[in-house]
Design goal:
With 385 residues, this protein is an all-alpha fold. The chain has helices at 4-11, 23-45, 53-60, 63-66, 69-77, 79-88, 100-133, 146-159, 168-187, 194-218, 222-233, 241-261, 263-270, 273-278, 283-305, 311-323, 327-351, 360-378.
């Protein structure tokens, strides 16, 4: 059930300052942006090719890149689409010479930061939505089995249907949807409860994780096996602009707009099912529609970074403690705090055992596991089975 604090936060929404004037939210946005900026500074400055911080940032802000729209379009959309857009809008498609530092930063290091930022956005918002839909503070894509379902679908695509690799976000969304439906079916007993959903999620995650391990036996190519392991642990190593192009449309046209628009419905769900029905809401339809948004957001992230655990659990709680339980602010906060956690975790993953890079999912797991235990111990009443 929603806590008294949550009810108070939602009920007093009309008396609050406008969203853009809220001091706690602005503090969170500025602080998270600074973390991402510092993480970007570290990421573009260190690597196998040595360059100074000044050289790295000169490469990031290379005027040859920023003054040529066609070059930027090629990075973000690929050569084919960039050429079409440039021709359509009358832009020059002449090739330009970029320095070695600029090529390394823009082709290798900067895409990793962009992917980490987008992954953090999607996972954080997905976790926040799931926590409202299930009215369970322990809910997240990882806990509810969505991550495992999406991961299994991705591994199946890589190992068995490798020719469809360009459709990874779609297959990930289908796998996450199937997993969540199974979890909901297992937990249903004249309705659901927070504990049953968590337990059902653990069951489905365990089964799907076992199936993921079994997929390794079907892969004859050692390269495919290594790639599959990277997916199951969550990694940003080797990401480039292709991964940016895969996740960017889902983030811009699904995760961000739909989560912001749905903030009012999420607030109503927190008031309880009876109250929501009294206000005219079709609870089950809204619940499944919002779950669909959360699944798409999580699946988009998993399709480019693999299974990165606990981001969807940690970030909404941190943001809630700062800005309150109103989802109009909570969603905005997650869109900034999620990237901050992912970029910071990836810096740790890259530099902790330098020159060896560890998967970012290991870092988030080391942070998220103890935090999950803290949340469980903190809750005085988990509910009846």
């Amino acid at each position: 059930m929603a806590s008294d604090t949550q009810r108070s936060d939602v009920a007093s929404n009309a008396n609050r300052l406008p969203l853009w004037l809220d001091g706690s939210l602005l503090t969170l946005v500025v602080g998270s942006s600074l973390v991402v900026l510092c993480g970007t500074l570290v990421q573009v400055s260190f690597g196998a090719f040595s360059m100074s911080i000044g050289q790295a940032w000169s490469a990031v802000f290379d005027p040859v890149v920023w003054s040529n729209p066609y070059v930027l379009l090629k990075f973000f959309f690929g050569e084919g689409i960039a050429e079409t857009l440039a021709t359509t809008f009358g832009l020059s498609v002449a090739s330009v010479d970029l320095t070695k530092e600029t090529l390394i930063v823009w082709n290798i290091r900067l895409p990793r930061v962009v992917v980490g930022t987008l992954v953090g956005m999607n996972l954080a918002v997905s976790g926040a939505i799931f926590q409202a839909v299930t009215r369970n503070e322990l809910a997240s894509p990882y806990i509810l089995g969505v991550s495992s379902g999406a991961g299994l679908a991705i591994l199946l695509t890589l190992v068995v249907f490798s020719g469809f690799a360009s459709f990874l976000p779609i297959f990930a969304a289908l796998g996450g949807t199937v997993a969540f439906v199974i979890v909901y079916a297992i937990a249903w007993k004249n309705g659901t409860s927070p504990v049953r959903l968590v337990l059902a999620g653990v069951i489905v995650s365990t089964v799907f994780s076992s199936l993921q391990t079994a997929m390794y036996l079907l892969a004859s190519d050692i390269g495919v096996v290594q790639s599959a392991i990277a997916w199951t642990t969550g990694s940003l190593t080797g990401t480039d602009w292709e991964q940016v192009r895969m996740i960017l449309p889902w983030t811009l046209f699904v995760t961000v707009p739909l989560s912001i628009v749905a903030s009012r419905q999420l607030n109503v769900l927190l008031l309880g099912e009876k109250t929501a029905k009294a206000l005219g809401m079709s609870v089950e339809r809204v619940r499944f529609a919002l779950s669909g948004v959360a699944i798409l957001a999580a699946s988009a992230a998993i399709s480019v970074a693999g299974i990165v655990g606990f981001v969807g659990l940690i970030v909404p709680h941190v943001v809630r403690n700062i800005v309150g339980s109103d989802y109009k602010r909570l969603v905005i906060g997650c869109l900034f705090a999620g990237p901050a956690l992912m970029v910071a975790a990836d810096v740790g993953a890259r530099l902790a055992l330098n020159p060896t890079q560890i998967p970012v999912g290991i870092v988030t797991g080391l942070v998220g596991g103890p935090y999950f235990l803290y949340l469980m111990r903190k809750k005085q009443q988990l509910g009846e089975l």
